[in-house]
Design a protein that fits this description.
Layout: H1 2-16, H2 29-43, E1 48-56, E2 85-92, E3 95-102, H3 108-119, E4 128-131, H4 140-148, E5 152-155
Parallel strand pairs: 1-4, 4-5
Antiparallel strand pairs: 1-2, 2-3
Helix pairs in contact: 3-4
Length: 162
């Protein structure tokens, strides 16, 4: 009996197992085709460069573990660990470049430093730089610095207006 129920559950799981698709509540499906069309037009005349940031920890506390029943499960923790490492990088033609690692939070000062010292020296001429709407991307002198070197910023939110 157990075997029959087990195989029925496995069969049902196989037939209904689908990968989840996440949708942001503010995403506008109608703008996606306009975004792709605008990128196709821009890509014919300019290099398209994508920027983003990510943070990671060298150690993370995991509150659960497996151990024989009735025995305490002990773990270790680095009590001195205070910050995470943040990375900023750019992609051009599928290649990662201008990667900067920072042992601090990313803010407008860190981002401006990265743009000036890491990104601009390696950018292809007359690039279109695709940025999300993080507040530290919007610092006026950072935008002016990129424009001064002949690059344009393409904001993800405003893509439909181009």
């Amino acid at each position: 009996m157990f075997s029959r129920i087990y195989w029925l559950c496995i069969k049902t799981f196989r037939n209904h197992n689908e990968k989840k698709t996440l949708r942001h509540p503010q995403a506008k499906e109608s703008l996606r085709s306009e975004f792709i069309e605008a990128l196709d037009q821009l890509q014919q005349k300019h290099p398209i460069v994508y920027l983003d940031e990510s943070g990671f920890k060298s150690h993370d506390y995991r509150p659960y573990g497996y151990f024989p029943k009735g025995t305490l499960c002990y773990g270790s923790f680095n009590w001195q660990l205070k910050n995470q490492t943040n990375a900023i990088g750019a992609l051009y033609q599928g290649q990662l470049f201008a990667v900067g690692l920072f042992d601090c939070k990313i803010n407008s000062n860190v981002f401006h430093f990265w743009v000036e010292h890491f990104l601009i020296p390696e950018l292809p001429r007359n690039s279109i730089i695709v940025l999300d709407n993080a507040t530290f991307h919007k610092r006026a002198d950072t935008q002016e610095l990129l424009e001064h070197h002949g690059h344009q910023i393409l904001w993800l939110r405003l893509i439909a207006l181009i």
